[in-house]
Amino acid sequence: MTKKSKAYTLIELIVIVVITAAVILAVIVISRMSRNSAAGKTMACQANVATMNTHIEVYYAEKGSWPSALTDITNDTNCFPKGSFACPAGGIYSINSTTHRIFCNAPGH
Prior knowledge:
Layout: H1 10-63, H2 71-74, E1 93-95, E2 102-104
Antiparallel strand pairs: 1-2
């Protein structure tokens, strides 16, 4: 008569540990990637705003007046040959008529 063992073998335990470690590692990597993606979008938005603010200064230097609307600078193909910028996070760029600076309405920008 043979007795059947109810214990796990060493190979089965190693496989369980490897699968668990892979799942934990995947969760860490995915969370880091999503955080880095959001930070990248924020930085790209800030770069867009800085570029448009520079072009507002150029507009003022060339014309002697501030642009009345954002389209006054974004429609200029010398400054924006590929068209105006779009916020990577889905925000909308607007110009403040008092400070003559661009801002984005996306949260955190």
